[in-house]
Amino acid sequence: MGVPTVLAVDLGLPVTPAEHEACPITDVLRRVGDKWSVLVVVLLGRGPRRFNELHRLVEGISQRMLTRTLRGLERDGLVTRTVAPTVPVTVEYSLSELGVTLLVPLSVLTDWVITHQNEIADARHEYDTWDAMLPASGPAAGEQQQQPRP
């Protein structure tokens, strides 16, 4: 019926912390949901890159963080590291066959965000405006009032 898999599968409730940690989706989302992985995957989706080229293309990422990101993506089978026997040694990173398949859901998510970015920005503005009007005292700011948000 066109229901996404995540909604069609019966989810035992309550979800325990152990179940959440053991969930393969949680594990993979940690990888692709980190600060740099999606950007690196997208760049490699446009073609193989050497480390220094990637480092130049991603402003603000340290060499250490790029190394960690590439190693994590390689460990998960999304990136392939190829060492060429040249002098000096040349190392090139590219998406693996599995990594290429990640480009489709990333593209769908990107299209969704582009389509709905104004609605999200409006909702955030409305929420922040409403939240700023609530008193900042009590157990947690805003929790003491049971008024519905607009």
Verbal overview:
This protein is mainly alpha-helical. Helix content is 57%, strand content 9%. The chain has seven helices and three strands, in the order H-H-H-H-E-H-H-E-E-H. It has a three-stranded antiparallel β-sheet with strand order 1-3-2. A hairpin with a 5-residue loop joins strand 2 and strand 3. Helix 4 (37-45) crosses helix 7 (97-133). The longest helix is centred in the C-terminal third of the chain and has 37 residues, at 97-133. The model has no long low-confidence stretch (mean pLDDT 88).
The global form is extended
SSE topology string: HHHHEHHEEH
**Proportion of beta-strand residues:** 5-15%
**Structure class:** mainly alpha
Helix content: 55-70%
In DSSP terms, counting alpha (H) and pi (I) runs of 4 or more, how many helices?
7
Mean pLDDT: 88
The span between the termini is: 32 Å
Major sheet: arrangement of strands: 1-3-2
- Main sheet properties: 3 strands, antiparallel
Q: What is the CA-atom radius of gyration, in angstroms?
A: 21 Å
Q: Segments where pLDDT lies below 50 for 5+ residues?
A: none
Count the E strands: 3
Blueprint (SSEs and pairs):
Blueprint: H1 5-8, H2 17-22, H3 24-32, H4 37-45, E1 49-50, H5 51-57, H6 63-75, E2 79-84, E3 90-95, H7 97-133
What's the gist of this structure?
With 150 residues, the chain is mainly alpha-helical. It has helices at 5-8, 17-22, 24-32, 37-45, 51-57, 63-75, 97-133; strands at 49-50, 79-84, 90-95.
